[in-house]
Amino acid sequence: MNIMPEQLEMITEQFKTLKDRSPFYAKKFDGIDLAAIKTQEEFETLPFTDKGDLREAYPLGLTAVPMEKIVRIHSSSGTTGTPVIVPYTKKDVEDWAVQFARCYEYAGVTPADRVQITPGYGLWTAGIGFQAGAELLGAMAVPMGPGNTEKQIQFMMDMETTVLTATASYALLLAEEIEKRGIQDKIKLKKLITGSERAGEKIRNRIIEALGVEYYDIYGLTEVYGPGIGISCQHSHGMHVWSDYVYLEIIDPDTGKVLPDGEWGEIVLTTLQKEGAPLIRFRTHDLSRIIPGECACGHNEHPRIDTITGRSDDMMKIHGVNVFPAQIEEILATFPELSSEYQIRLSHLDGRDTMRIYVETNGSVDWEDLRKRVASSVKAKIGFTPLVKIVELGLLPRSEKKTKRVFDERYD
Amino acid sequence: MNIMPEQLEMITEQFKTLKDRSPFYAKKFDGIDLAAIKTQEEFETLPFTDKGDLREAYPLGLTAVPMEKIVRIHSSSGTTGTPVIVPYTKKDVEDWAVQFARCYEYAGVTPADRVQITPGYGLWTAGIGFQAGAELLGAMAVPMGPGNTEKQIQFMMDMETTVLTATASYALLLAEEIEKRGIQDKIKLKKLITGSERAGEKIRNRIIEALGVEYYDIYGLTEVYGPGIGISCQHSHGMHVWSDYVYLEIIDPDTGKVLPDGEWGEIVLTTLQKEGAPLIRFRTHDLSRIIPGECACGHNEHPRIDTITGRSDDMMKIHGVNVFPAQIEEILATFPELSSEYQIRLSHLDGRDTMRIYVETNGSVDWEDLRKRVASSVKAKIGFTPLVKIVELGLLPRSEKKTKRVFDERYD
Ligand SMILES: [Zn+2]
Ligand SMILES: [Zn+2]
């Protein structure tokens, strides 16, 4: 995707003072003349910023304004190792709320809505982001925070909640609890806004069916404001990402080369307005693609990314080709006779890499024929022939949480 | 204390439309001509609003604006029974932040400060109140939320926190942990702002000594914004309560009569600017008194209340006199030979009420003489003679949490 002229201008404008403001980028771009960056091609020569760089800047080394201008920090989870600390100015906090309010607007939320917020608060960016956006829009925030399903359901009924914000798995838990109690008619939910984890089509449909809601996916990450930098619209075909706040690239995670629209790769973000901690070419490690063409909603100033299908760390290099689980999944999804479960195993046998794909079906189809059709479909789309193994429906492991589906056993 | 002319004007102004806006007050003040209320005396004839009324209004019966103007709810804990739901408009949310920022100003906090927030978020008003005020002032909010002492201390060191906001008991826990680890020199704390529970002089001094901080008490309750409607100033002699947001009365909890300045009783609050859920003569059940005279800080437009010494439910009626544990405690505190522990037991013996006061001392004083001096001091200050029992230092029960000190055994 080509950079928009306004975006390029915002980037070159911030480059004028970036090194003066930010010791972090002064060091990172040492020896690079930022004033000379005038085109997309030149921009694409700049080195990426990675989460490791951000960790090294711990605690407040990312700060690009005088410290008194920082009014808040957030922090990425960092359950292992050093966390990343993201400092926000007043403008950053406001800009984030503006973006989040726009997310709600895209989802058709109005001041008459009541938004129940189940993500967590504190250093975590989720809860307060969902709340600030709802309040700025003028909807009624019901700030529950996580857990306490009993109280969540009580408040959902008593406050007549119309919009639920939750992770997909918590939404599923609530949906099943509501079904179990047979209280669907006491629930006024119309929309679900979910983020922070990828939900399979099945879970998604299960929630939609149980709660009768419209389903919206929100995008964002702590390092770049938090959730709210993009959302799916009513056409449910990808998430619009706010082009006035971030410049979006999709790169080959292996080579770093920028990929054409439509190709799967890693999302790289450059902030256009962030003061506290601007980020230039930040590697998110989220896998997606830019959806080419126009969206029926008409908001084509904000490009769409596809559902996040995993982490670039999941990328498999096989026979010199980059393969993402999502690509395999997409191909498998075209076979209605297969369940949505699968497993990919990579091994090194007889001197060469092999991909085995395990899929499930029932006994009513010709397994040998199906096996061949799946293998040739992968060959046609990706360029090499995998070993396809068909197993009985229900044989592949399932888990409530994130199911591990890719096993690389080549270097074990 | 006399109502200020501006306060009376704000009250009569809101009375013009109160019944139209608020079904709750239309019902409560049914048959009362609010337009006729023009003086303090007339105002004092209005019935009180109690927490029970607010519970009855569950869920959103307190709302005094069109529902679309509500942008947030908070809720009082309600561990037992129906919770109270408090709806906020955008102005209410902003006004609360303005009041909270003023609290920080009174505590000498500036944009250069870093405020670590350990109270909880969500329906609870504490965390988000502390955060919004800090951000509005321009200080750096470090939004930790409750618990995780390990991480709290890590962030306190790494973020160079200068202001800790916490309950007294959590501050004590952190102080003792910091002492235990011998890392006082790595801690940059200058101020502690604490609320929501009363801390004895000893705990307070223990924290001040361990952390070397200035100690500020904040006042507030969910029904009236949340914490932040008042704070102690650097003279540590009572909490200034914002007279432009609330009108303060101290009443006899038994008769409902307004008490003169200086007398202990129950705090009653009337909101002057609240839109979402205005409250008229709300009984807080918090026991305090208005501190007469001028404060050395010069902010005499905002009257001071004394440290909250308990709940009006703790009031003891004995020989026709209202007695509060705080009064006894105040008297005992004038005896340096006594420890800060005490116990009050009320019983009905030989046809009359008796108060026994247990106090502690060591063996170096004349117990009989001390006993007499304490008894006559109570007689002089409160008007009746208690039975004073002196016990060995350490004999009275102590607890980490709230120690029960008053036992009414008259009707057992
Ligand atoms: Zn669209
Ligand atoms: Zn003062």
Task: Explain how this protein is built.
Two copies of one chain form a homodimer. By secondary structure, chain A is of the alpha/beta class. Chain A has two domains: 89-311, ANL, N-terminal domain (Rossmann fold), CATH 3.40.50.12780; 316-408, 2-Layer Sandwich (GMP Synthetase, Chain A, domain 3). Chain A is 29% helix and 24% strand. Chain A has helices spanning 5-21, 23-28, 40-43, 51-56, 90-106, 126-137, 149-158, 168-181, 201-211, 325-332, 367-382, and strands at residues 70-75, 85-89, 114-117, 140-143, 163-166, 191-194, 214-221, 226-232, 239-241, 246-251, 265-271, 282-288, 304-305, 316-318, 321-323, 342-349, 352-361, 387-392, 406-408. In chain A, the strands form five sheets. An eight-stranded mixed β-sheet of chain A has the order 4-3-5-6-7-8-9-13, sandwiched between helices. A four-stranded mixed β-sheet of chain A has the order 18-17-16-19. In chain A, a hairpin with a 6-residue loop joins strand 8 and strand 9 (239-241). In chain A, helix 5 packs across helix 6 and helix 10 (325-332) packs across helix 11 (367-382). The radius of gyration of chain A is 23 Å and the shape is globular. The two termini of chain A are 39 Å apart. The mean pLDDT of chain A is 92. Chains A and B meet through strand 1, helix 6 and strand 4 of A and strand 1, helix 6 and strand 4 of B. One zinc ion (ZN) binds at residues 233, 235, 240, 295, 297, 299 of chain A. Chains A, B: One of its GO terms (molecular function) is phenylacetate-CoA ligase activity. Chains A, B: Monomer. Chains A, B: Its EC number is 6.2.1.30.
